[in-house]
Amino acid sequence: MIVGIGTKNRAKVAAIQHIVDQYLQDVEYIQVAAASNVSEQPFSNEETRQGAINRAINTLEEVKADLNFGLEGGVHEIGNEMYCTNWGAAALKDGTVISAAGAQFLLPEEIANELRAGKELGPVMDAYTKQQDTRLGAGAVGVFTAGLVDRTEMFEHIVKLIIGQYLFMHRK
């Protein structure tokens, strides 16, 4: 089976490979930097979900794999509070798209205000942590959960939901 991965982000790639390897056999991976066709900083569940779906479909169009993944992180507000939200999708050759959402967690107000001012979470987190490429490792979730959950683990849950739906659809 060929699996297309619509990102070069190592945290997302690790999540996909770790979960897929547990449930599917004889897998060959092809990675591409698939476009999300949404804002650099998605600002709703709908936009974040659409970004994941777009990445999955764009991966399918480029790679033509059996199973094509797109993962997207974004934010959304409930009242005066801003939460990180994360979505994933898989596009199949027959046109089927499977999607799922994962953990959501509250962002501190100082981070939320930076995003409301038009900044993207990745660079804001780099400035906040005084590190580079936070999004490739622990991510905001790792920082704001005291390291209990990192970005790979957060996306693994989403990939597992997608693989579970895929296996359910293809049960014999």
UniProtKB/TrEMBL annotation:
Residues 6-161 form the Non-canonical purine NTP phosphatase/PRRC1 domain. The keyword Heme does not apply. SUPFAM superfamilies: ITPase-like. It catalyses: XTP + H2O = XDP + phosphate + H(+); ITP + H2O = IDP + phosphate + H(+). Its cofactor is Mg(2+); Mn(2+). Gene3D superfamilies: 3.90.950.10. InterPro entries: ITPase-like_fam, NTPase/PRRC1, YjjX_NTPase. This is inosine/xanthosine triphosphatase. The keyword Secreted does not apply. Pfam families: NTPase_I-T. Keywords: Hydrolase, Magnesium, Manganese, Metal-binding, Nucleotide metabolism, Nucleotide-binding. NCBIfam families: PRK03114.1. The lineage of its organism: Bacteria, Bacillati, Bacillota, Bacilli, Bacillales. Its EC number is 3.6.1.73. It comes from the Bacteria.
